[in-house]
Amino acid sequence: MTENRFAINCSLTLADVPPRERAARARELGYDAVEFWWPFPSADPEPGEVDEFVDDVTGAGVRTVLLNFPGGGASVGDRGLLCVPGREGDFLRSARTALEVGRRLGVRRFNPMVGNATDEWTPGSAAFETAVANLVSIDAIVGGLGAEIVIEPLSGFPSAAIKTYGHARDLVLAARSAGAENVSILFDLYHAAVNGDPVLESWSVDAELIGHVQVADAPGRGWPGTGDLPLGDWVQRLRDAGYDGPVGIECNGVAVAADAVSLSR
Question: Of the listed 152, 181, 201, 208, which one is catalytic?
């Protein structure tokens, strides 16, 4: 395996491992790059909790390539605060907390989770404009870390504001135009496939807009090769177009050693 070519999502893919042992287990499996959903039970962890998490990850000798922001609580279904009008202060507090944890780990990609929307996701809608304003509000902090925010379309959540590559692209371009320079797309090929995202048919993907890539097979959200998706072809297209970052494995099932993972055609 090429170094850092794959990153294992410790929160989902190693969900059967005790939280404090996940980074070490990833290393045992041969991964030197990892991802995490928000790793704490609350949006405001105690300093000792943060110290333990940072020590566990750094002690395992792995590099954290992606960290999610806190989900925002039950009132938004823990799906994120980025686009939720009236919660701008909560979003900023959660962002600062996540970015500080990430700073200590050298994280360069952060997923704020866009959240749910009750109206149509279009430029000018309250949810869309709230997301743009929130991205602008944290851009200086993100840029100061040499990092990026990555916007992820989701499947499986009917009220999710962003479900397609096109939705994410609209937000990224609007945010950049408004002054948020450090924003890109998290292109999760599993979510795109399950949603029937037309971008997979037209392949009108601008690699310059892609900040991170994740995979799982379908049906079942299992390991690559367990389903029907041409993940190898899709990833190769992204590589050919210029994407040179790690590919995050965010799937269910018994964890596979890094040297046994293949996304070949």
Answer: 152
| CATH code of the domain in which 30 resides | 3.20.20.150
Which helix (H) or strand (E) segment is 148 a member of? strand 148-151
Mean pLDDT confidence for 96-119: 96
In a domain, 47, yes or no: yes
Residue 152 known to be catalytic:
yes
In the chain, how many domains are there? 1
- The chain-wide mean pLDDT, for the chain, equals 95
Helix (H, G, I), strand (E, B) or coil at 91: helix
Percent of the chain whose pLDDT exceeds 90: 92
**For residue 46, pLDDT beyond 50:** yes
User: Domain residues for 176?
Assistant: 6-260
Is residue 67 assigned to a domain? yes
SS3 of residue 185 by DSSP? strand
* Phi, psi (rounded to 5 degrees) for 148: -135, 150
Residue 183 CB partners (closer than 8 Å, separation 6+): 135, 139, 148, 149, 150, 151, 171, 172, 175, 176, 211
Residue 250 falls in the annotated catalytic set: yes
- Specify the pLDDT at position 75: 81
